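COMPLEX REQUEST
Ligand: pyridoxal-5'-phosphate
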Amino acid sequence: MQRAAAPQRFDLDLTTPTPIPEAGIDRAVELMRSGRLFRYGETGDDGGEVALFEREFADLLGRRYAIAVNSCGASLFLALRSAGVAPGDDVLLNALTLAPVPGALEHAGAQPVLVEVTDGCTIDIDDLDRKARNGARVLVLSHMRGHVADMEAITAICERHGLTLIEDCAHSLGARWNGRATGTFGHVGCFSTQSFKHLNSGEGGVLVTDDDETAARAILYSGSYMLYGQHLSRPPEVFFEKLRAAIPNYSMRMTAVAAAVLRPQLPLLPERIKGWNNLYQELEDRLAGIPEVRLIARPPAEAFVGSSLQFSLPTLTGAEIQDVLQTCAEYGLHIKWFGRQEASGFTSRPDHWAYLGADQVLPQTQAVLAKLCDIRIPLVMTVHDSVAIAGILDFALGPTRGRIRQVADSPSGMPVDQAVD
Ligand SMILES: *Cc1c(COP(=O)(O)O)cnc(C)c1O
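STATUS: Structure written out below.
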């Protein structure tokens, strides 16, 4: 078989983060000069950058309250605590998610009950409906890699079974289902401002809610030292008076520098989303031309943010996928794969979380993850890069085509192992 000409080396670092706007850099420097990096002051301050960021973030989402903390994982932990989850409680969670999410459940002492995912990378509604009958009161729905499930179906199931919905929107800021933003369906929505998400402050998280008591609890738990009066986004005083003595301080605050670099990013979000979606479309169009690639269908109701692209290689074995991705890596293209035996590159999966116990059997999720690949889309990417990515992947898949053809040609129908070139 004729092998295609070797492609050029791919020289873009797909992990390139989005830079901080100059206004954020200036404000951060100003704060550092003053030394006032802690969010609270003791002399009747107005709360400064973090309080302003919270107010702006709540307004952006159209929710009453936002509480900024030091990570999305921390905001999920606080959401669970604020929803009254006690040690030993079952909490439902879709099995395709990132390690900090089961980590937050474990941190809150909850018992994760994993729900299968579909090949559309979203929670399996039927499996959720089944597992919701076993006593869990809370569902943590992780919009992993920005894939949004049928939110009307989810909301109906939550109502039917009396489930409190907590949305993990770490990777879905700006995404919508039938026009409604993720993070506004649930009792609580949790967001990340870690460098690889849609806003970048290195580390950071935000919890949003419309519920007075939940907001008061989250503010107290996050570590407000009874200075909650400095929050511009906060429920009435009575809620704090009722709760303040009973709630421990978990010290999960956001620093003023993080808020300072985040605030000027908020107005840029629509433009960033447009940029990601254009790049996503470009890359998807190119990958669609590769016969082995199965793209993930995106339902019309889902307005997603294309900051990463997932696809699967359903006709390849695990060993073949490993070889193909190895070849891509040799040409400088690092594609992530959820089928790896060991957790790597933000692609961990349920069997990597041994602390959950081995009794959660998820055959459908295992089958999906075994073939699922993942490419991050940095905003510095160009059309030229999309062409290069598709070219390298197509080239790397060449040897597997040889094998498939040989399988078809072999009189016995058996694979011919060495038939790779
Ligand atoms: C990044 C991410 C998290 C964790 O966010 P941190 O801010 O790093 O704690 C949780 N869930 C998903 C889907 C993520 O992508």
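REMARKS: The first helix runs from residue 22 to 34. Residues 78 and 218 are 6 Å apart (CA to CA).
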